Every structure is written in structure tokens, then in C-alpha cells.
């Protein structure tokens, strides 16, 4: 589903990531960890073709990213739901309208029942008409997750989804991501939080990837 073949990426001519070869299978659950500035967000951006590698090849859904057309990029983005680290919203629109935004951008009709169900799933039914500025950190993250999955993507990528929330909320967010994985979605989570990884390991088969020395290694079982 996501294949890296001897990939390198750097900003300004200096490699940040190098010799990355790995394969993420459909339905798998991955954590990506590593020190601040190691390149986690950069790696995730390569996984949804926000960035193209400076060397090597990436295949997403069987397609070489280098060769794909603009239309195919749009299609590929629809298959991948992303929860960004800073989860931005359109401040003048309600939470429900923000969550439904990917549908309007794609020119798809809004299925109200589906939106209602999705809002209930993330526990935001009561906040549908609120403005983003009125949400707590945990509510923002859950709204961002709902927005990321409204197009029924095959892959869900979350960049530090629990960075600014307490432990109870972290567990709640993790639970939602585990549920998505049980529905068959491939899940990739970047996090510093080893407690979160341990918690997930007790519930779901996960692979932990760690960035060290510009390379990505599979972490051992000692986490
Ligand atoms: N657009 C950019 N231009 C130049 N340098 C960048 C750019 N984006 C990121 N970097 C640099 O690349 C390095 C890796 O950034 P990245 O955000 O991928 O790391 P990270 O592991 O996600 O960090 P954190 O855990 O702090 O979020 C950092 O040194 C960062 O300053």
C-alpha cells in the first residue's frame, strides 16, 4: 500500500532522511517515533505525496508517485485521511461544516445521516454548531479526525494526535484510531508518547518505526 524504495529526502540539499526502504501493508497499524526534528512529519508527508523524495522511489496504492498526474494526486489524497499536528479549521464555519468540508471540496453531496453518525462517533454531537475557536484541544483533535475520515479513506495518518491533550483524551483518541484499524484501515501515528504505544500494543498488532541517524528502523519488542 505504501512502499519506500531507498528513499531520501532533504530540505536545502542536506539529507534529513536517507536509505528508507519499507513497506506498509493494507490494514496494518504503525507508530512512527523519534526525537523532535528527526523527520516524522516529513516522512508522513512523503506517505501522502505532499512531498516527493529527492532520491529513490515511493509507490502509493501500487502507483509510483513520480509518474502520477494531477488528477491521480487528488484521487490519492481522497484515499488518505490526514490529521495534521496543528489541525487548522476555517474559523467562520461551524464544527459540522468544517468536518464536511472535504466533501464540498471534492464536489460530493453531503449525506447528513453519515455526518451525524460520524459526529456521534467522535463524541461531538453536542458541538456541531460550535465554532472551532470554542473547542477544547481534545475536541479539536476529534473534529480533525472526523474530517480526516469523512471521505472513507483507506489510510489514516495522524501526526502527534495526542500532543496537547491529557491521558484520558489520548486514550480516547487512540481508541478511535484502533476502531478505524479494525474497520480495515491502515493507520500511521507519529508520536513521542511511549505510554500510548504500550497501550496500543496491548490491544492491536502494531509495528513501531523509529527514526534515528536519518534512517528508519523497526523498533524492538522492548517498548
Ligand atoms: N519546509 C521546510 N523547510 C526547511 N526545513 C524544514 C521544513 N520542514 C521541516 N524542516 C526541518 O526538517 C527537520 C525535521 O522536521 P519534521 O517536522 O519532519 O520533524 P519531526 O520529527 O516531525 O519534529 P517534531 O517531533 O518536533 O514535530 C527539522 O529540523 C525542521 O526544521
From TrEMBL:
Any one GO molecular-function label of the UniProt entry: transmembrane transporter activity
Domain ABC transporter: 2-223
Pfam families reported for this sequence: ABC_tran
GO cellular component: plasma membrane
Keywords from the named record: ATP-binding, Cell cycle, Cell division, Nucleotide-binding
InterPro entries tied to this protein: AAA+_ATPase, ABC_transporter-like_ATP-bd, ABC_transporter-like_CS, ABC_transpr_LolD-like, P-loop_NTPase
Single biological process term from Gene Ontology: cell division
Keyword Cell division: yes
Identification of the protein by name: Cell division transport system ATP-binding protein
Organism: Pacificibacter maritimus
